[in-house]
Please model this.
Amino acid sequence: MNKEIMKFPFYLIVHPFNGYWDLKYEMNKRINLIISFLVIFLMVLTNILRTQYSGFLVNIYNPNHMNSFLEILYVIVPLLFWCIANWSLTTLMDGEGKFVEIFTSTCFALIPLILLNFPWIWISNLISMEETAFYYFTNSFALIWFLFLLFIGNMTVHQFTPLKSITIMILTVIAMGFMAFLCLLFFSLIQQIIAFISAIYQEIVIRY
Amino acid sequence: MGKTERSFKLLVASIVIFTGISMGAFHVQANGQAPSYNYSYWGDSISAPDAYKPTTLVNGEDLGIGPFIEPSDIHVTEDQMIYVVDSGNNRVVMLNHRFQLIDTVASFDNNGKKDQLSNPQGIFVTKEKQIFIADTGNNRIVQLDQNYQLVTIIEQPSSDLLKDDFVFQPLRVVVDNAGRVYTMAEGVFDGFMEFNVNGEFNTFIGANRVQVDPIELLWKRLSTQAQRSQMVMFIPTEFTNLDINEEGFIYATNGDNSSDKIKKLNARGTDILRREGYFDPIGDIRYPIDIGPSRLIDIDVSDSEMYSVLDSKRGRIFTYNNDGHLMYVFGGIGNRRGLFHTPVAIERVSEQFLVLDKALGEITVFKATNYGHMINQAVRSYYEGDEESAYHFFKEVIEMNANLEFAYAGIGKALLRQGDYKGAMENFKKSLDQKNYSKAFLLYRKEVLKDYFPTILTTILVAVIGLFVWRFYRKLIKRRKEITIE
Model:
């Protein structure tokens, strides 16, 4: 049983149709969630190591701008935005997926990004300028694989037709933009309010 | 791929880092009164040691010829004679390399008649000591020999290329080794005017490209013919100055706001400037929006294709090497010594810089510090291909300023030549030079693989044989077990 669970994510990424079906209907929700969090953790780890240890020829980074905490947010924020936007849209558009299912299916789609990019962190230190083409090829391939899995996952989880899921995915991205805008608006307003209150406080303190 | 990823990250970061930064409080370091600075690969201005320090001031009163009135150009010959165009006094003043007065020229003998200069703006002196003066007020270029006797006068040209109402007002003039005269004239948008040896107008050379404002273009598209004729035409920007090097390439500055503010023109007028530095040579790359980018108004090219440009907005002088790496910056606007009011012209005399101030009517003389001298020497030896001495000079430079990134590439190249591939890699990494890093890395990898090749191959061979033996052994055991079970 345990071995089967270990094997399941790998099975899913190469057999997405069956894999996602099993994810939705067969597998234990709790175990799925645990695997999902593990995937997020590994994704964050890969990204941090990637910015720090990738070869000089593929990665010129400014150590002053490298921030591991931000790297965490770069993974988690878009992921949550995606899940929330997708969930909000699909509930309105007859999607069958629950939030947990959307979340787990998205996380499982991230696996190729980890599997392909992680080894390249180390290999990229051993390549020359001409060979970086392989690095970029693998990167792009991983990205396409990820998008494909995301698409299949969305289709299976919500039981959509392919066309509808593509529409939903595009709409989700737009919704993410809206959310980002609202967040910015909200926080800048909050900031204004805080600035206002602190100004009043200062004035009172200085006067009395 | 990398770029999109970065911009994506930036987007997310801007969503994430909503607090903390209030807009408008952008920290622009370049605007401060930092004595000297250079730009890092990341575009930050980082303070650097002074490359040049002001030593003396030269003005007309001290020379005993009355104050300079709005002088506009200086020129220095190879034997370090200094020619100052004292426009307001309609004369040319000659100084020797110790800044002592040699002579002044205000008039010359024109076919038996005494002829005067009128508001001259530019000067050029050839190796043969032929003096070319852009005599703007008289709409002509005057050529004098070394005894200040008139040789020829280039008058207003007539050509099909010129409009009928064209008035020839030369501002700056240079002469190449073949004796062709190039002049920058007022109101000419087609480039520099080229005159042949006989003083006949040949052609225009090196016109700037027209820069079109998209919004204005839209308005133009929407308006009628009558309205359009009332609007400003899209015309190429004028050049602001020019200089010529020994090989006959014209270095020019223009008032554009693009990456080709500085141009190196070949004989056909094509821009062949190398822009291999971390940034295009455009003067300041960071500036407050309300003041805007550097306005380059003079250029001086010296040996080893080093060139310096003068920014009239902030009074700074930027010097670049032949690849377009920013070597050093000095000068500024202000009232202290070494700062200017309205600088108009720069000229380099071996290890000295002369900066002419139009409003104050004085020349500030800058002398290279040890640091400046070392950079100059390093760039020179590097240009000449003498990597060995370039290595030593660059080492010295880095001792004084470890932040000068392009210097590491110079060290790296020398190490690469010496066969120290690992050292070369480290230095190229410091100068963020991926191309050369890759070269050094390939050689290093070959070297390492050569050393370890037998070991690696033996290990693989042993592993493969071991695997086979192991499989065979397991099969044997299995078979035996099966036999015993039966």
